[in-house]
Amino acid sequence: MRSVRPILWILALFFLFADHSPGVAAEETVPPRKPQRIVSLTLGTDEILFSLVDPKRIAAVTYLAADPGISHVAEAAKGVPNKIRANMEQVVALQPDLVFVATYTSMDVVKQLTEARLPVVKLELFSSIEGIKQNIRTVGRVVGESRRAEEIVAEMDRRLDRIAARAAAAPRKPRVLFYTPTGVVAGKETTFDEIAALIGARNQAAEVGLVGHQKLSVERLIQLDPEIVIVSDWNPEEPDFYEKLMAHPELGHLSAVRNRRVYAIPEKHLSTVSHYIVDGIEQMTRIIHPEWFDSAALGKEGARSR
Questions:
Q1: Measured distance CA(61)–CA(64) in Å, rounded
Q2: Which of helix, strand or coil describes residue 161?
Q3: Signal peptide location in the record (predicted)?
Q4: Rounded-to-integer distance, Cα 168 and Cα 162, Å
Q5: What domains sit in the chain, N to C, each tagged with a CATH number?
Q6: Is 252 exposed, middle or buried (0-12, 13-18, 19+ CB in 10 A)?
Q7: Residues sharing a CB contact under 8 Å with residue 26, sequence separation 6 or more, in sequence order
Q8: Percent of the chain beyond pLDDT 90?
Q9: What distance in Å separates the CA atoms of residue 171 and residue 305, rounded to the nearest whole number?
Q10: pLDDT tens-digit map of 140-180
Q11: Strands 26-28 and 120-123
């Protein structure tokens, strides 16, 4: 499992902090009205499917679904006998009546699946909260569970609206920055920027005019002096990144470091492209505005600060 994590870490940053761009919800061929042998080749659809259909209708999920560090459905995935990669032979052997893929699935595999006349749905919207909602609706429609999909989206909206209402009335918006081991930050036109605005924070990378994902020097980081720094709790290429950041001799004067407001968020909350993204948003809200919520108002799992 660890051999794939560097690749997944890069994909995780793409998902949550992806540049916003227009696109369609999905490309698809027509599946049966209520497919009974569904194969999911993306972790996002793994997570969505377990909230939509009886697990007996799921013939296979990705091998990533079983990893509790990055999957919200690791326990549920234990009940699915097949955990596979995007491998044509494995998929065909399962005789699926519906296969979910994504824009980042191997083009060769997608082409082969289509040529084999298997019903394929390719999801394409991952760069915004609205895109994720649209994916949930698409999955719900093609598996014959549109009503349940709308219920999931409505629950997302209810939780997000509660946060947005508080944020709109916030007298002050703290300066926040997402920071990676390579010094890359998320600026304008990224999902992180969208989330920062939603939860009542100021994304400093966006405020200084950075667009998309750009590398920030240590000197520039010191000049920005963010009040809060968000990192992932899972950095396969530099597993002790959090500790190194906190002990960095040049960063000791940062407000975030000095005030112990550098937070490591569970990777599964950051990288998800399913409805579970709301869990991550709620975690970041608690970090940014802990005074808003009592112990029962938002889930407390996750954020680590020392």
A1: 8
A2: helix
A3: 1-25
A4: 10
A5: 2-161 (3.40.50.1980), 169-292 (3.40.50.1980)
A6: exposed
A7: 121, 122, 123, 124, 125, 135, 138
A8: 70
A9: 25
A10: 999 999 999 999 999 999 999 999 999 998 899 999 999 98
A11: antiparallel
